[in-house]
Write a structure and sequence with these properties.
With about 350 residues, the protein is α+β, with helices and mostly antiparallel strands. The protein has a domain of about 220 residues: Umud Fragment, subunit A (Ribbon), CATH 2.10.109. About 25% of the residues lie in helices and about 20% in strands. The chain contains six helices and 14 strands. Strands 3, 4, 5, 6, 11, 12, 13 and 14 form an eight-stranded antiparallel beta sheet that branches. Strands 9-8-7-10 form a four-stranded antiparallel beta sheet, with no helix packed on it. The chain starts with a strand and ends with a helix.
């Protein structure tokens, strides 16, 4: 539809209707186009501002930038997995507690959700295991313990199981055990004193002996004070030794003494006298994977795993014996990471 506008007829005062743009001047063409935001030919192109003549559309992002944006998430996932693998291999590894041998320090009872612990690995690169440490170690070949999880042959299930082991929600494939270190190389250990306590000597089987106060024990094995010194009651399953721990080895015991296949259990003969093999019943220091430092899951069980006072009070290495304890490493690591992230944000 053509629009008309009124044009004054000079000298007569009369007005006549003329088609808009009939004079063919540029002003008329500009006026007609300024009245609409529709691009000629009906295309849906960018709108043109009538006042400024500028386009309201944003310029398209370069193809290279769009491609980099699509790759960013997969790259971050790969980097995160790589960091997790490095941390698991060299620094901190999560472990799942499948048995009740360390009850109630570590839950693994039938029917309950087993604890997930974090094990600090570098500590045994700078020092040997200390009495009182809760240590994770590779099970000796002749120790009769439940084996690890056999990974599936299905690639998908295998990958899920591998990732579960990585984060500590699936038991490992190898036989890794967790116990408490009671005595180390050069020390002599036996049970029991007149109250049924484990004793440790730093001067051989002749003593003097130091009794351990172990309130963390859950359901100790049976014991009856013998009527004759040095004798063993018929129902006594607690007594063993004396056993001198060979150099670079450790004597380990579970906190659930009544249900733990530990060093006492592997004395072969029930634990008395020279028939208790000091090699078969102990674990090489080199088989120690790391020190358990914290219960990480479930949240209701979160707590650190320190060294009981009975070991430090007896003159044995205990809490704070080395400045490079796991807690110190952890605090330093958090401080470094936090500072790095803060500096990165400021940039």
């Amino acid at each position: 539809m053509r629009r008309f506008r009124e044009v004054s007829n000079s000298g007569t005062g009369e007005q006549a209707e003329r088609p808009a743009g009939a004079d063919g001047g540029p002003d008329a063409v500009a006026t007609e186009r300024a009245d609409t935001d529709v691009v000629p030919d009906g295309t849906n192109g960018p709108a043109i501002d009538g006042a400024t003549g500028s386009s309201s559309a944003q310029p398209a992002a370069p193809a290279g930038r769009r491609k980099a944006s699509r790759l960013e998430l997969p790259i971050l996932i790969v980097v995160a997995i790589a960091i997790a693998v490095v941390l698991k291999t060299f620094v901190v590894q999560p472990f799942y507690i499948p048995s009740q041998s360390m009850e109630q320090t570590l839950y693994g009872c039938p029917g309950c959700s087993g604890d997930r612990i974090l094990v600090f690995k570098p500590v045994y690169h700078v020092r040997t295991p200390h009495p009182g440490d809760v240590v994770v170690f590779k099970a000796p070949k002749d120790w009769e313990e439940l084996g690890g999880v056999q990974l599936s042959g299905n690639p998908v299930v295998h990958g899920v199981q591998w990732f579960g082991q990585l984060v500590g929600v699936v038991p490992p494939s190898e036989k890794d055990l967790v116990k408490r270190v009671i005595a180390v190389g050069g020390e002599t250990v036996k049970c029991c004193d007149d109250r049924g306590n484990v004793q440790v000597s730093e001067h051989g089987s002749a003593g003097p002996w130091r009794s351990l106060n172990e309130p963390y024990i859950f359901q100790n094995s049976s014991w009856t004070k013998p009527g004759t010194p040095g004798a063993k009651a018929p129902n006594d399953t607690r007594s063993f030794g004396p056993v001198t721990v060979p150099a670079n080895r450790m004597w380990v015991m579970g906190d659930h003494r009544g249900d733990s296949a530990d060093s006492r259990y592997h004395c072969r003969d029930g634990g008395t006298g020279p028939n208790c093999d000091p090699v078969a019943s102990t674990v090489p220091n080199s088989d120690a994977i790391g020190k358990a430092v914290v219960i990480a899951w479930p949240p209701s069980r979160w707590r650190t795993l320190g060294t009981p006072k009975t070991f430090s009070s007896l003159g044995l290495p205990g809490v704070g014996a080395l400045p490079g304890e796991p807690a110190g490493f952890a605090v330093a690591g958090v401080a470094v990471i936090g500072g790095w992230r803060h500096r990165r944000r400021r940039r």
